[in-house]
Design goal:
Elements lengths: L35 H6 L26 E6 L7 H16 L5 E6 L3 E6 L2 H9 L3 E3 L2 E8 L1 H13 L1 H9 L12 H14 E2 L4 E3 L18 H14 L5 E3 L23 E3 L21 E3 L4 H4 L3 H11 L5 E2 L2 E2 L17 E2 L2 H20 L8 E10 L8 H6 L24 H4 L2 E2 L1 H10 L4 E2 L5 E9 L2 E14 L2 E13 L5 H4 L4 E12 L13 H14 L25 H15 L3 H10 L4 H13 L11
Helix pairs in contact: 2-3, 6-7, 10-15, 16-17, 17-18
Length: 625
């Protein structure tokens, strides 16, 4: 029976493809207890199955021609068919001095099946197994027709027993895989076919090419959960799994895969019957990197771009889809949420951030050289622009329009640089001097403070508190309008440092700047835009009404700080003292004196500390060593 012999043997883009759909003649049942040689033989296809292919078989009253078939796996999916064929002919000639003639040669992405003239040629091919072609080991198996016939006859003898098992649930049972022999067969199969080096298991067309198990059902949750248990025991480090051509309609069982500590990141469902995009919701916990769905109704029954966008929406961490690397533009239009107002996790951090940013951008827009001490000597700076802003051709090079051509040679957008690109390191500027050198080369700007939206919070890194300031806003550059996002990681200015002497409340440890053409935002409102300048004015007013007696030489020796309407409790005082110590890095005695002089108003104490620090009036011994 040769029906279906050639169907599916074609080169397909992507992984897991290229297997025959037809299985040829099979015995009516299966024998589970088989030798490993028979297991390998069972991987044949088409004519190789059934009793009519054995040597000199006279059971049907006629002579049947002997078919010497080999199965070749391990080559890359993109391997050229003719090159692999010539490689095999030359390899056998060198190793065994046998001339191989391929009567048939059916090349698929994952498997080649070939028919040769004689058993000698087939065995010579098998003896040449485990040699490398284009960097991967090639596995060659001779599908001995005598063993296949013996297996088929044994399967016929056991058909009734397996049939009764299936009627009672058998391998399709919801909660069990079937009898112990079935489980052992699967364990043996996985042991034999799991590539430990590549951490890859190929179960493509598993039921079709394994007549010992005709009742495999990859749609059955119970069967699959038991299969995952075998994965956990036999190949716990599996990374890649091919399940192409297994008549899979639903992915329901795969929601349980990670619960068995099976962390597959590359999986192929090529040439199955998956028709609904909702099936992908069962894969959301798998953290997939590479997914193949080609030749499924889900991929062929709709517009490809829509299909791709829907897959990315369901699995946003995906890197490859159908063997194609996904680009940011593949995601499609994203509806952004409305602009939110500024966020500060504490009013103290608000004062520090607003004061710092105003001082920073005054210098940035006018005298950038004055920023040198605002950066730590160990600071890092990088600049990125979006891919779509690069422009094309001579228009881009001449800088016409609003292309960001001035920033291209400094761009460190990692989505545009390969892992081996040395620009990943050369465009990461380290140290205040190197950062100042690159900032001075950037075009002059004028930042609109009223456009700023700021998120600010403190976080702890290895026992050190750092301030994260994320700023989004607009600026003008010559005649162009730009938008930007900037993330600054700020640490406390070291006592006695030049930063402290110049009035910087902290120094920048890390600076990431992202520039793009102007974003047309929603209409502004007092709740979302311009809050930074409003808050700055409020803070300045507070500072003017809060003076420390020794802040200037002409200041009165009597504190005029605003007093609280009620005296704080002892626990509140301890809390304020601890927080002021943490923010200012002053020792407890000096922090307590500062709070006491300001009638235990935390805001006034911090504001006066900043004024005195800017004037260099706080001695070094006030700070922690």
């Amino acid at each position: 029976d040769e029906e279906g012999e050639e169907e599916g043997d074609e080169k397909v883009e992507g992984g897991g493809g290229g297997r025959r759909q037809g299985g040829g003649r099979r015995g009516g049942g299966q024998r589970i207890s088989v030798k490993k040689e028979s297991i390998l033989a069972a991987r044949g296809r088409g004519r190789a199955f059934g009793p009519k292919t054995a040597d000199d078989d006279q059971s049907m009253g006629e002579s049947v021609p002997v078919v010497h078939k080999v199965s070749i796996t391990g080559h890359r999916a993109t391997a050229p068919a003719n090159e692999l064929k010539e490689f095999l002919i030359q390899l056998v000639k060198e190793k065994s001095d046998v001339d191989v003639t391929f009567k048939e040669y059916n090349h698929g992405p994952n498997r080649v099946t070939a028919i040769v003239n004689s058993k000698q040629e087939a065995l010579a091919l098998q003896n040449s197994s485990n040699n490398k072609f284009q960097g991967t080991k090639i596995s060659i198996v001779y599908l001995d027709p005598k063993k296949i016939q013996a297996q088929g006859n044994n399967n016929n003898n056991n058909n009734n027993n397996i049939g009764r098992n299936n009627q009672r649930g058998g391998i399709r049972g919801r909660n069990q895989m079937g009898d112990l022999q079935t489980k052992r067969y699967l364990e043996q199969y996985i042991d034999k076919h799991y590539d430990k080096e590549g951490k890859m298991l190929d179960l493509s067309a598993f039921a079709v090419h394994n007549p010992v198990l005709t009742s495999v059902d990859f749609n059955n949750v119970g069967f699959m959960r038991n299969m995952f248990r075998i994965f956990q025991a036999k190949c716990p480090d599996i990374v890649s799994l091919s399940l192409s051509e297994n008549q899979i309609k639903t992915l329901e069982a795969f929601q349980y895969m990670t619960s068995y500590e099976v962390n597959v990141i590359n999986i192929s469902f090529e040439r199955n019957n998956i028709s609904s995009i909702d099936e992908l919701s069962y894969l959301k916990d798998m953290k997939l990197r590479d997914l193949v769905l080609s030749v499924n109704p889900i991929a062929t029954g709709t517009d490809y771009n829509s299909y791709k966008s829907e897959v990315i929406r369901m699995l946003p961490d995906l890197v490859y889809l159908d063997a194609q690397k996904l680009a940011p533009r593949d995601v499609g239009p994203i509806v952004l949420p409305p602009i939110q107002p500024n966020f500060f996790d504490h009013e103290v951090r608000q004062q520090i951030a607003v004061t710092f940013l105003k001082k920073y951008y005054e210098f940035y827009d006018d005298k950038r050289e004055n920023l040198v001490h605002a950066y730590s000597e160990f600071a890092c700076f990088s600049l990125s622009i979006p891919p779509e802003q690069k422009g094309k051709g001579s228009k881009f090079k001449r800088g016409k329009g609003q292309g960001l051509y001035q920033y291209v040679d400094k761009n460190r957008n990692l989505t545009q640089l390969e892992d081996t690109d040395d620009r990943r390191t050369t465009r990461l500027y380290t140290g205040s001097e190197a950062i100042m050198a690159i900032l001075k080369k950037l075009p002059m700007t004028d930042h609109q403070l009223d456009s700023f939206i700021v998120d600010c919070f403190v976080f702890n890194l290895s026992g050190t508190e750092l301030l994260n300031m994320s700023v989004h806003g607009d600026f003008t550059e010559a005649k162009f309008k730009r938008s930007f996002s900037r993330t600054l990681i700020v640490g406390a200015a070291p006592p006695g440092s030049k930063a402290q002497a110049e009035g910087w409340p902290g120094v920048i440890m890390n600076d990431q700047l992202y520039i793009r053409t102007e974003i047309q935002r929603q209409s502004t409102s007092s709740n979302t835009r311009g809050l930074l300048s409003q808050q700055l004015n409020q803070i300045q007013n507070n500072l003017q009404s809060t003076k420390l007696p020794t802040s200037t030489s002409t200041t009165s020796t009597t504190s005029t700080t605003t007093t609280s309407t009620s005296t704080p409790s002892d626990s509140d005082k301890q809390r304020m003292l601890a927080e002021l110590c943490a923010i200012t890095r002053m020792i407890p005695a000096w922090s307590e004196q500062c709070l006491n002089q300001n009638n235990w108003s935390y805001e006034a104490a911090l504001a006066n500390f900043q004024l005195l620090q800017a004037e260099g009036k706080i001695p070094v011994e006030a700070f922690n060593p």
